Amino acid sequence: MPSINRAAWLHVKGEKLQVGDAAMPEPGEGEVVIRNKAIAINPVSNKIQDIGIIVQQWPTILDYDVSGEVHAVGPGVENVQQGDRVVAFVFGPYGGDPRFGAYQLYSVARAEKTKKLPDDVTLTDASVLPVGFNTAIVGLCGPPGQGLGLPLPSLSPEPSGKTLVIWGASSAVGLQSLQVARAAGVTTIAIASPHNFDLCRSCGAAELFDYHQASVVDDVVKAVKASNGEFAGVLDCISLPEDSYKFCIPILEALGGGLLGVLDPQARLEVSENIKVVKIMGMNEMTDAVWDEYLIPALREGKHRCLPEPLLAGEGLESLQKGMDILKKGVSAKKMVVTL
Ligand SMILES: NC(=O)c1ccc[n+]([C@@H]2O[C@H](COP(=O)([O-])OP(=O)(O)OC[C@H]3O[C@@H](n4cnc5c(N)ncnc54)[C@H](OP(=O)(O)O)[C@@H]3O)[C@@H](O)[C@H]2O)c1
């Protein structure tokens, strides 16, 4: 029987997702068709649904994180084959081709962004990785202008002698960034809520501070100075004026300036000359090889974890809107996932 595709479409900004038919994709050169089994939901999808940013063509199919089984491969694909259990970063609404959206039964992914999973990593767990890990890699290890220029993660890290501040360490990008920093030999001073301190510590945070405390800026500045490492900058995984910029900028000022990595590509920040704002974009070719050389072997060896833990919104494409609604209200160290 021929396979039938269905998708949770966003027809226009401001509307809810609607499940309906979608064309069954054929893989082109260097492309893989994946039968999705788990889809993770990212906060940007709520922004797209509300205000219509990024979308080049309506209706659209949202989001980027899928895991499942390879259904078909196109010419020139050698890294995966039919039936393989894989995780992939798809392009979502970027580029305007709905075949590359995540919220459907069958998505198309570029072969270089499709990675075969170790047997003991579940598809549901793996679905939380692509956006979070890729953004952590670009943010920490991207070259000047793209990231903070830290070493790439390694399975046997050497101490780098550098100290990094991560604001919002319990977020999806934060938990991946802590682990990448540890694997890059970088000491991290992390900011989160106390109920997430143990989790952040287990991902490598050397020191933790509570963002609800009035003393947080002073405490972080003292900890960076006491670390004796070379200050590598602040990665702001929250990137909102009142929630994080208000604190991250004074931390940098008190430390004499440096790099401020932010996750909002549209951010317009007024900062003194000695602070350099780096707008981080997780979609970057530099991440592809890091999956092969670090992440997949590290998952196999238990040196890197699929975090935040998935929080299941339900099963089936109909549950995606529910997952988006829960995420919009806010989650704590969890990633909304829908299984199919
Ligand atoms: N540029 C890119 O390529 C890119 C990629 C990925 C994400 N992003 C953006 O980055 C942002 C974060 O995304 P995400 O998926 O990582 O977030 P997320 O996981 O949904 O973030 C929620 C976490 O942040 C913590 N938190 C909330 N407010 C905080 C604050 N004021 N200070 C410190 N921690 C706080 C929460 O913990 P508690 O409430 O329990 O403290 C919770 O654990 C979003 O705006 C997203 O669109 C951009």
Description of the structure:
Monomer. Pfam families: ADH_N. Belongs to the zinc-containing alcohol dehydrogenase family. Keywords: Oxidoreductase. The protein has 340 residues and is α/β, with parallel strands linked by helices. It has 2 domains: 156 residues, Alpha-Beta Complex (Quinone Oxidoreductase, Chain A, domain 1); 148 residues, Rossmann fold (3-Layer(aba) Sandwich). It is 28% helix and 26% strand. The protein is built from 9 helices and 15 strands. β11, α7 and β12 form a beta-alpha-beta unit. α3 crosses α4 and α6 crosses α7. The longest helix has 15 residues. The protein is globular and about 65 Å long. The two termini are 19 Å apart. Bound molecules: NADP nicotinamide-adenine-dinucleotide phosphate.
